[in-house]
Design a protein that fits this description.
By secondary structure, the chain is an alpha+beta fold. The chain contains 21 helices and 16 strands. The strands form 3 sheets. It has an 8-stranded antiparallel beta sheet with strand order 12-9-11-10-14-15-13-16, sandwiched between helices. Strands 3, 4, 5, 6, 7 and 8 form a 6-stranded antiparallel beta sheet that branches. A two-stranded parallel ribbon has the order 1-2. Helix 15 runs antiparallel to helix 17 (449-463). The longest helix has 30 residues, at 13-42. The radius of gyration is 23 Å and the shape is globular.
Length: 527
């Protein structure tokens, strides 16, 4: 009966989600109203020091307990509010009240920085900064992501080929460590902690503020669409464009079939003389962005248009890249868009809020959500591996720098000599974004998802890449230590007494589902 129910949920998922869209919309509307009231009426950046002092006092009380009574600390932010695929076991940890840290603390235009509390969202920061003629140097496409979460984990966007991952744009972290001490952490002050915080996922200290780089903007993005019809050509062309002295401000590619992709190159621009070239693609009735991009591929001709900047920055928000097409296959139909497009997308927070453990385990083996950072030299091989293991399209490609930080190399190892851009201190990597349901599952065929993901992780380790840790990890502790450089991380945990105060990184990011029990079940199934 359980399997029959799961099969029905899978087969009629689109209809079920459609029926839940209004509930999810109302759920999100309440959250947005709360945020609106907070931003307009309640926000009190002048109270930041008081809030931080309260957090310090909570940590000091925790620290004063006998060592045997201390449970690892974590924030009190609810699990369903974050964007990871996991459901962290916060009931087993000691929660520190700090979810009220949601204010923008100030902008320094002369220094090109913004200072924020950790739970400020991308959407809030983007609205605030665009009104002042700026944006974050790295702006994620999902509005609900928090800047603190991205800084302590990872964030990447289509400007990363020029500045690197989001943590490379952090000027300073303000962190409360295990004994309640508040530290301002920069490249010069506590440089070991500064370089270990990215990818640490809150396992070294409690982030209470950070300063990030911002860039001046213009109201539009002039976008060029370049269709390419061989794998080697789009791999080579994307690499060449990403390291060119005149590289475009925004650069990405979407692969629709193994040998067919569209490269997108964008620059800040003022309004064009021909207003017909403006495409406000974020409106509810417009085609999903990736479907719009696909039209240039099959027309076979390059194209260009001007996209309002905010529409560009959130271009993937309505379809959550292309995940929604597996949830609601008819979601891009013109009739659906005109009648119900304003309800989209299904709210991630609501989906997580309403997910039961049984449904979570089912989706764990039915879907793939992975962002993987890989060296550009392995792009063709990576697409081949993704095709062989999942045969899922579209696939996202975002170029990004990975820097060599010398003695303070963090969790990401320094680029191999063969991957380093000559004359620089960085290598050019890319994000391989694979989201959705593998083709064999769509076709109703047997498919061993965990086996496939472990093979993808093995390939990633071989070429010197790293999966984003918001997604499910299928590695053993030993395999995890082979992939990531934990040398500095382990030293910092001891130096700042985090080893007895916060969960270890591997324990924090491993799925709550028993990966190896699922692996054993898959192994017993026929191929």
């Amino acid at each position: 009966m359980k399997q029959i129910l799961f099969d029905l949920l899978t087969r009629f998922r689109g209809v079920i989600l459609l029926s839940l869209l209004p509930i999810g919309y109302l759920f999100d509307a309440v959250l947005q109203l709360r945020n609106f009231i907070y931003e307009r009426l309640i926000a009190a950046p002048e109270q930041h020091d008081r809030r931080v002092a309260d957090i310090q006092e909570q940590v000091r009380r925790w620290y004063a307990q006998p060592e045997g009574q201390r449970r690892p600390m974590c924030t009190d932010r609810r699990t369903w509010q974050n964007l990871s695929t996991r459901f962290a076991p916060k009931h087993e940890w000691h929660k520190i009240r700090m979810s009220g840290l949601r204010d923008i603390l100030g902008v320094d235009r002369s220094a090109g920085t913004v200072r924020v509390e950790p739970f400020v969202t991308v959407g809030y920061a983007t609205r605030f900064l665009l009104a002042r003629g700026h944006m974050l140097a790295v702006t994620l496409e999902i509005e609900d992501a928090t800047l603190g979460g991205l800084a302590m984990a990872v964030g990447m966007t289509t400007h990363s080929h020029k500045v690197g991952l989001l943590f490379e744009t952090v000027v300073a972290y303000e962190v409360i460590v295990a004994d309640g001490t508040l530290l301002r952490v920069t490249r010069d002050e506590h440089p070991d902690l500064f370089h270990a915080l990215p990818w640490s996922h809150g396992t070294l200290g409690l982030l209470v503020a950070l300063e990030l780089k911002i860039v001046p903007v213009k109201p539009y993005v002039h976008m060029r669409y370049i269709p390419v019809h061989t794998q080697q050509q789009y791999c080579d062309q994307l690499h060449t464009m990403s390291i060119a002295p005149d590289a475009p401000h925004f650069l990405e590619a979407t692969v629709f079939e193994k040998d067919h992709a569209v490269i997108m190159a964008g620059e800040f621009a003022d309004a064009p003389a021909d207003r017909g070239l403006i495409n406000p693609l974020g409106r509810w009735y417009k085609p999903w962005f990736f479907k719009h991009v696909e039209t240039f591929l099959w027309q076979g001709q390059p194209g260009e248009e001007y996209i309002p900047l905010r529409h560009y920055l959130m271009r993937h928000n309505r379809s959550i890249f292309w995940v929604v097409q597996h949830m609601i296959p008819f979601g891009n139909h013109p009739v659906f868009r005109w009648l119900f497009g304003w309800l989209m997308p299904p709210r991630i927070a609501f989906i997580k809020f309403s997910t039961t453990p049984a449904v979570r385990e089912m989706t764990f083996t039915k879907q793939v959500f992975q962002d993987i950072v890989l060296p550009m030299s392995a792009m063709s091989r990576a697409i081949d591996a993704s095709h062989r293991l999942f045969e899922m399209y579209p696939v996202l490609l975002y170029p990004s720098r990975i820097y060599d930080h010398g003695e303070y190399q963090g969790q990401l190892r320094a680029p191999r000599d063969s991957d380093r851009v000559p004359g620089t201190d960085f290598g050019m990597y890319f994000d391989l974004g694979v989201y959705g349901v593998p083709l064999p599952i769509q076709q109703g065929k047997p498919f061993k998802t965990v086996h496939a993901m472990r093979k993808m992780e093995e390939f990633t380790r071989e070429v010197g890449g790293y999966p984003f840790l918001y997604a499910d990890t299928f590695m053993t502790r030993e395999e995890f230590g082979e992939m990531f450089n934990l040398d500095l991380y382990e030293k910092v945990r001891i130096r700042y007494h985090a080893d007895n105060a916060f969960p270890h990184l591997y324990d924090k990011i491993k799925p709550e589902v028993d990966v190896f029990a699922v692996l054993a079940r898959e192994a017993a199934e026929p191929d």
